[in-house]
Design a protein that fits this description.
Blueprint (H helix, E strand, L loop, with lengths): L1 H5 L3 H8 L6 H4 L12 H14 L3 H10 L1 H7 L10 H13 L2 H15 L8 E9 L7 H8 L11 H5 L5 E5 L2 E13 L5 E8 L10
Antiparallel strand pairs: 1-3, 2-3, 3-4
Helix pairs in contact: 5-7
Length: about 210
């Protein structure tokens, strides 16, 4: 562990900067996850690890079991139980369903400001595409979907559940894109995101500026 610290463990630096107890009151609005409840703050930090290292639910379970730096960040020992992938999925799903992701995002932003990590020296606003599986619908079905409705013939069939009726087409630089857009406002100096919204791909960047 001393060698990890000397080599500059980024998770250790993050833990020294962020007071994770700051998020506890928000996290405790949720029912603890798992058959034997886990600390919601532990679950939240697992989600942070997933985003930081771009890990799936299956991989985050494996990496926590395998990596000392992850255990130290989470405050657990090699003898402690580790939440499995289904528990992680369930926790994230309930976090989103209760709308707590926005509240946590705002809390995190205020904490970054407190430590001077958001400088307010200018903003960058940009959007990125999130591709969705392309649909093979008839022209009639596509017309109905664009009108904000679901084709009647899909009612009660697997298509009703499987078809993505929120994603839309757009064209940029002569390339077609189908899916969604992540619009983000970023601090110019430190590149931290301080505001964001998600739309379908057809929404022009200027329409999300507000």
């Amino acid at each position: 562990m001393e060698k990890l610290s000397k080599q500059g463990d980024p998770l250790e630096r993050l833990s020294k900067t962020i007071d994770w107890e700051y998020f506890r009151s928000t996290m405790e609005k949720m029912v603890n996850a798992g058959p034997k409840p886990y600390d919601p703050l532990l679950m939240f930090k697992i989600l942070i690890l997933q985003r930081y290292y771009n890990l799936s639910d299956e991989q985050i379970e494996y990496q926590i079991l395998d990596r000392l730096s992850f255990c130290r960040f989470l405050g657990i020992s090699i003898n402690d139980r580790v939440p499995d992938e289904k528990t992680v999925w369930d926790f994230r799903d309930r976090l989103l369903s209760k709308g707590l992701d926005k509240e946590l995002f705002e809390l995190f932003g205020s904490l970054l400001e407190k430590h001077g990590l958001i400088a307010h020296e200018g903003k960058i606003i940009d959007a990125s595409f999130v591709e969705a599986p392309r649909q093979r619908n008839s022209r009639e079905d596509n017309k109905t979907i664009k009108e904000g409705q679901t084709p009647e013939k899909w009612a009660g069939t697997p298509k009703e559940r499987q078809k993505d009726t929120d994603a839309q087409w757009t064209k940029k630089n002569n390339e077609n894109h189908y899916g969604y857009k992540n619009h983000a406002k970023v601090d110019n100096k430190h590149k931290f995101i301080d505001s964001y919204t998600t739309t379908d791909a057809s929404v022009h960047d200027s329409q999300a500026l507000g």
